Amino acid sequence: MSTKPNSIMHYFSVRRTLPVTVLLVLALSACRVDQTVERPNILFIFSDDQRADAVGAYGNQFVSTPSIDELSRVGFNFREAHIMGSIHGAVCAPSRAMLMSGRSLYHVYDKLDTVATFPEQLRNSGYVTFGTGKWHQSRESFARSFSDGKDIFFGGMSDHDAAPVQDLLADGQFTEIVRKGFSTDVFADAAIDFIDRHMESDTTAPFLAYVSFTTPHDPRTPKPEFMTMNLEDRPPLPPNYLPVHPFHNGWMTGRDERLAAWPRPAEDVRSQLAEYYGLITHMDARIGDLIDALESNGLSENTIVIFAADNGLALGSHGLLGKQSLYEHSTHVPLIIAGPGIESGSSDALVVLYDLFPTISTMTGFEMPSGVDGHDLTDLMRGDSDGPRDVLYTTFQNIHRAVRDDRWKLIRYPRIDRIQLFDLENDPFEMNDLSADTAYADQVNRLMAIMVVEHEAMDDPHPLWVDSLDSQEFDYSAINRRPDRHQPQWVIDKYFN
Fold first, then answer.
1. 442 shares a domain with 293
2. Is residue 397 a contact partner of residue 377, using CB atoms and an 8 Å limit?
3. In angstroms, rounded to a whole number, what is the distance separating the alpha carbons of residues 350 and 78?
4. What is the extent of the structural domain holding 408?
5. 141 and which of 112, 118, 310, 482 could share a cystine (Cβ 3.0–4.6 Å)?
6. Can you give the CATH number for the domain in which 419 is found?
7. Are strands 332-333 and 85-86 parallel, antiparallel or unpaired?
């Protein structure tokens, strides 16, 4: 390989002129993680509710993601990236708090007001820090973390067609809320504007541009040009589709779960998948524009691009629609890091989003504060480590607990005293519960012992066993499905009437 690009952006600059085979050769020749790359810029792209398999490069032929696919080809793919879980139904709030703080769930919960964030550390070390899109934390924590901010959304979800946003003022205050156009375009345009302004300024400081999209979170209302209208073109049901979850898991009627009827109509699931993929495809197109903005401003040689999501989503898998479970479709997220000094490749090591805090610290040189629980992933990217952990412990409220290694996964439901055991190697869609098979009793005992240890190590305040049990029966016949205020009329007409 005689041609060796030294940045992810070089690859993107030639993507329209070279055939795919040549692009793959260029991607595979990307350099290894190089600690001598001096104070790189960072473009951090964060999607909302995007499951790990909702990426074309990962074998999904029903979603179009050419920009993310190219990042995947030239960057390092963490194929087993996860979130730890949540203390409540708004999973994205604690997920983002863990990402920003580098702390595990019960060391940060869902608030950033009293802990350092990685943008704050970058800012204190001389970076210009810019943020746009969904924050889902306090205004005070945003103002402390970012020196510049435009079109910021401080809520959990909203109407995509009229994003309620504010700008950060020089004194740390914020403008009044205004409603603009489609959220994906508003946030992408704000980030491109920042990149252009940064290049026009006198500063020589590196920057962090944090772009937090609110898609593909519902309402699942893609722009018409990204909408699949024909039924025959809609994606098939997921391999682990079920009309109804086999038992009441403690979270069967939350807001997300009411977005389709019970039993889940197959065509409604397919239709919502098409809408979900449409939101992702639109976002992907704007990610391409962000990459182009780096290239056109001459920033390719010293900018690292990180792409990740805050959590997954069920969308018909296991009879569920939301993210409030510990199945892989809800905890497993995409994570790609690409740019100068990073070799293309992938790893199946178990990582969590809060590992990004110390990883970014190593790549940029800022000092890590105390209290960070994450692990530096740069050794893993260099091939000098097999990964930061052998097991992964995940939780949801006080009703779900799970532990898994590279093959086996045990989910415990303390409130109903039930377990599930899955062989992920042979059953990646978690459809064959082996917990009642005596042939796997040793696996159950081994994983339960690990769960007990991890429960203590993670300072989990909720018991693994309770005295008073809830019912496992789920009777949906009398449930009144009312749409939330964010669903437009056409969604209400389509899925509620």
1. no
2. no
3. 8
4. 396-457
5. 112
6. 3.30.1120.10
7. unpaired
CB-side neighbour CA atoms (13 Å) of 129: 18
The Cβ of residue 243 has, within 10 Å, a number of other Cβ atoms equal to: 13
In a domain, 475, yes or no: no
Any domain includes 474: no
One domain for residues 361 and 434? no
Please write the tens of the pLDDT for every residue from 28-66: 333 334 444 479 999 999 999 999 999 999 999 999 999
Tokens of residue 494, six digits:
């389509």
Distances, alpha carbon 491 to alpha carbons 159, 163, 182, 271, 488, in Å: 12, 18, 17, 11, 5
444 phi/psi in degrees, rounded to 5: -60, -45
Question: What is the rounded CA–CA span in Å between residue 54 and residue 334?
Answer: 8
Helix (H) or strand (E) holding 328: helix 328-331
Query: For residue 471, is it within any domain?
Result: no
Residue with tokens 């924590």: 141
Q: Would you mind telling me the total number of residues written for the chain in this entry?
A: 497
Question: Residue 16: pLDDT band by 50, 70, 90 thresholds?
Answer: very low
Structure-token match 């204190």, residue found: 124
Q: Report DSSP state, residue 138.
A: -
Residue 334 has φ and ψ, to the nearest 5°, of -75, 145
pLDDT (tens digit, 9 = 90+) per residue, 82-136?
999 999 999 999 999 999 999 999 999 999 999 999 999 999 999 999 999 999 9
Count of C-beta atoms within a 10 Å radius of residue 399: 19
Per DSSP, 256 falls in state G
Residues facing residue 164 across a β-bridge: 179
The pTM for the full model equals 0.92
Please enumerate in sequence order all residues whose Cβ is within 8 A of that of 438, keeping only pairs 6 or more positions apart, or say none.
none
Using CA atoms, how far residue 330 sits from 16, 54, 256, in Å, is 34, 12, 12
